[in-house]
Amino acid sequence: MTASKEESAESRIQQWVQANRRNVEQHLLDLVGIETPTENPETFDRFFDRFAEDLRDGGLRTDRIPGDETGGRLEAWSPGADSADEIQLVIGHADTVWPLGTTEENPPESDGEVIGGPGSLDMKGGLTQLVFALRAIEDLSLTPSVPVYVLVSSDEEIGSPESKGRIADLAKRANRVFVLEPASGPEGKIKIARKAVGHFTVHIEGKAAHAGLEPEEGASATQELSSVIHRLHELTDVESGITVNVGEVEAGIRSNVVAPDARAEVDVRAPTEAAAEAVESRIRSLEATTPGTELAIDGGFGRPPMELTAGNRLLWNRVREIGQRLDLALEGTRSGGASDGNDASQHAPTIDGFGAVGDGAHQTYEHVRLDALVDRVALLAACLLDEPLPAEPRQELDDDHDDGDSEDARK
After folding, report:
1. Does the pLDDT value for residue 4 go beyond 70?
2. Which residue, 56, 53, 93, is CA-closest to 71?
3. In 53-195, which ranges are E strands?
4. What is the pLDDT of residues 38-95, one digit of tens each?
5. Tens digit of pLDDT for each residue in 299-343?
6. What is the reported pLDDT for 2?
7. Cβ atoms 340, 150 nearer than 8 A
8. SS3 327
9. pLDDT tens digits for 193-227?
10. Measured CA distances, 13 to 263, 326, 374 (Å)
11. By C-alpha distance, which of 209, 179, 207 is closest to 191?
12. Phi, psi values for residue 332, rounded to 5°
């Protein structure tokens, strides 16, 4: 595709999206009005029925895969994608953190500029973005350079236990992956790197004794826990991006008994695989220092890091260039959170935080900026039309003398 044709297509997409601004607004309000808490699998039937129809209107074929303990997932693909050697994968999730009944207290609403409601930002805004990007391509008779494959899950908010394997399988076939998680902050930064996320449980066994009569006969698990907490927090190195947080503790039975047991739940974040392996090794090397106590550690890293690989840098460069042609000044950043992008990036160039722009994810003031959502519809549509990434991304990076590794991306 020549530069002039690309510019023509992008201009046509922008005009189409602006003409459909109110349809975008209403669609997001409709999606927010269909509640889909992760823990209520039965709610996804109605949502996926609606969303499958949306995707078929965008020219895709659909398949609903039921879950074992979740609401399952919806997959959709452009003609030929199911048998193609290479696809471009778009990942989203329909589940929200909000319990049933939340929309009665906090109904979806819009003032024409800001759309609010539970799940609007995380991530029904991103799903609306996908629907209208596909409709724009379909209505304008444009053809994506690589067949499009879509996966929308119902279990992302709990770590994607049932969809993780399928995401990996599809990513292995992907030329590139777009993850429709919310953009970072009100500024709308694209997430070009994510940290690995680990969860560890520290178990401490002591020995009970009467705290007043014979405390010397006991071994305090609480005392050992205080030492462990201190040692764990010392592993935090903000400068390098490693954080260790003891967020939940439990110890003892009552105040006049030397504590026979204790437990700590630990959250760990690391920017690279090497850093994750190093901090995990240090956590597992902890030993009890209080006489008479024993220490055991369970858990590990459940999400690998999304690192700024050559493929990820090249994809980010391409997205940034397309953004410039759409008069969008895009910025990239590293996120401390995790998503399905962490897993997909192990197999294909991936860009995350490609969804809606707003603020308040998982909070009562959650909202999406409509102007930015319209812009992101055009951005996604244009990116789906972009030529495939080369098999050796580093070659193109070397030719451009720009790897996209901004100072902000390294933070």
Report:
1. no
2. 93
3. 61-65, 73-77, 87-93, 109-110, 114-116, 148-153, 174-179, 190-194
4. 999 999 999 999 999 999 999 999 999 999 999 999 999 999 888 899 999 999 999 9
5. 999 999 999 999 999 999 999 999 999 999 999 999 988 999 999
6. 45
7. no
8. coil
9. 999 999 999 999 999 999 999 999 999 999 999 99
10. 55, 10, 11
11. 179
12. -110, 155
> How many Å from the N-terminal Cα to the C-terminal Cα in the chain?
36
Strands 174-179 and 350-351: parallel
DSSP tag of 120: I
Please report the pLDDT score of residue 411 as a whole number: 36
Q: What is the pTM of this model?
A: 0.90
Query: Per-residue confidence at 396, pLDDT binned at 50, 70, 90?
Result: confident
The β-bridge partners of 258 are none
Give the number of C-alpha atoms closer than 13 A to the C-alpha of residue 294, restricted to the C-beta side.
3
Measured CA to CA, the distance from residue 133 to residue 16 in angstroms comes to: 10
Amino acid at 365: Y
Find all residues with CB under 8 Å of 307, minimum gap 6, and list them. 193, 271, 272, 273, 345
In order of their start, the domains of the chain are 3-194+305-410 (3.40.630.10), 196-303 (3.30.70.360)
In angstroms, rounded to a whole number, what is the distance separating the alpha carbons of residues 245 and 278? Answer: 16
The token duo for 69 is: 């303990």
Q: Residue type at 22?
A: R
Tokens of 397: 């990076």
| Whether 60 contacts 76, CB under 8 Å | yes
Tokens standing for residue 351: 């860009």
